[in-house]
Structures are given as C-alpha cells and as structure tokens.
Write a structure and sequence with these properties.
The chain has 66 residues and is an all-alpha fold. It has four helices and no strands. The longest helix is centred in the N-terminal third of the chain and has 9 residues. The chain is globular.
Length: 66
C-alpha cells in the first residue's frame, strides 16, 4: 500500500514499477497529488479559482505534517 509521496517517488525512480496506484490515498486526501508535489519540492500551477487552496495557503498543512 503506497501512502506517501516519497514512497511513490522511490518506487518509480528505482525502476521497481512503471506506475503506482494511489487510489486509497486520493480517497483520504483528494488533493494528494498537489500535496505530494509540494512534499517533493515541485511547484505546480494552480487554476485561478483554486489558488486559495494551494498548500502554502492552507493552514491545515502544518497540522497534516505533524
């Protein structure tokens, strides 16, 4: 079961798999992809209506990482 962004990245970069399935992670956190990118240091553009929900703007992000 892949739950973390670093775990998924390690599996892909090591060549253990061509893709990873993270359906349960998305059920738990619908913005998992954006949060994973943030955790891995990748900056993604946000559509203007969603800009307020960017990880840097969401106060719950610090609580999530704790």
């Amino acid at each position: 079961m892949i739950t973390g962004s670093q775990q998924a990245n390690d599996i892909i970069t090591s060549g253990q798999a061509d893709q990873v399935a993270i359906g349960r992670a998305f059920l738990d956190d619908p913005r998992w992809g954006w949060h994973a990118a943030f955790d891995l240091g990748v900056t993604l553009p946000y559509p203007a209506p969603y800009a307020w929900a960017a990880p840097g703007e969401w106060s719950g992000l610090q609580r999530r990482k704790a």
